[in-house]
# Entry
Amino acid sequence: MTDASRLLDALAFAAERHRKQRRKDAEASPYINHPIGLAQVLCNEAGITDTVVLCAALLHDTIEDTKTTAEELRKRFGDAIAQIVAEVTDDKSLEKQERKRLQIEHAPHLSREAKLVKLADKICNLRDVAATPPTKWPLQRRQEYFDWARQVVDGLRGVHPKLEGLFDSAYGGRPDH
# Structure
């Protein structure tokens, strides 16, 4: 399988799995825009062309937010991609605050590839919260999200200065009103 066909397969798989999901913004944007955004940040803004990382970015929420299993990803996309996705997947059986705490705790211990995906995820999320916030999120919740994301990213630092700079720039858009 060529790199291009592998990327397109990951994109098609993610689009199919997320097909009924919407973002929480006022326009209820299609959810698939989020994983595509991660791949674009990684490739077009940070210069990362590793197909494994880009595929993992496209697939990063499939285990967490759909009925996809790690084994299913392993069979279709291989061990490396499935492992990265598993590393960035929250355990939805845990309470939200515990999941958030664990993201901060686990960030320094992720593989290099998982750190890249996690950085791109936080960059995209901050940009989205600043530009098109979830409709039910008051200012305080948006500010708390920014501050929590910074704590996660602090544990990822040292892996990719360009991505870290993009995060810092996105953090500069922390809402104040």
